[in-house]
What does this fold into?
Amino acid sequence: MNIYVSNLSFNVTDDDLRGFFETYGEIKSAKVITDKFTGKSRGFGFVEMNDDEAAKTAIKELDGGVVEGRTIKVNEAKPREERSNNNRSFGNKSYSRY
It folds into this structure.
């Protein structure tokens, strides 16, 4: 199961993120998302766990927890939606770039 973790401190590393979840079960991967230009954390990350039940327990236990003074949000990750580069959305209206 893939887990989305948000509102992370910008000091949290991949290893830190892995450590938050290791007590709940085996971690397949843990990645803090970084800005592609600066390399700095964007304040969120993803954890992939092999056991869905362990992942659900981790989500329940860690959601709302405080890490470095910040209350983190922990949820099941949703599939990424395809985004078009040609359309821009403003409110309820969508405009084509060309």
